[in-house]
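<instruction>
Derive C-alpha cells from the sequence
<data>
Labelled lines for chain and fold:
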Amino acid sequence: MISMVGKLKQRAETGVLATALVIPLALCVFAFLGVAGYFTFRESLPPNLAALVTAACGIVLIALVLIGAKLANRTRSTPPPSQSDFELGEELESYLREHADPVLSDWVRDHPDRAALVSLALGVAAGYSGRFRSVLMDMYARYSETERARRDRTR
C-alpha cells in the first residue's frame, strides 16, 4: 500500500512538472507558428486577410485536437461499475456511519480541513485509478470480515 501511494505521488509530481514545462513551450511554439503563418500568407494576401486565414487555421487546428481527444477518450473509457460495486459502496458508507472509530471521528471533528483534503485526495485517486479503487474496496472487505469475526467472538 505504501509503495503504491509513493508511486502515485511520484507519478503526480512527474505529471505536474512535465505539464509546467510543456504548456509554456507549447504556447511559444504555437505563437511562433501563428506568426510564421501570418508572414507566409502576407506575401500572397493583404495583411488583414492573412491574419484572418492564420486565425482560421488556428481554429481548425484546435477543432482537430478536440475531436482527436474526444475519440481517444471514447476508446479508453472504462466499463460502468457493476451493481455489486454500488452495493459494496453503500454498505461501506453505512458501516462507516455506524461504526466509525472514535479516534478517527475526533480527528475529523478537530481537523475538518485536513479531513476534507484527505477525502478529496482519496476520492480523486479512487475515481482515477481502478486499481486503487479495488485496493480500497479489498481493504474494506478484509476489515469488515475481521470486525464481524471480532464481534461474533464477543457475543
Remarks:
- The first helix runs from residue 2 to 42.
- Helices lie at 2-42, 47-76, 83-99, 102-110, 112-128, 130-154.
- The two ends are 33 Å apart (CA to CA).
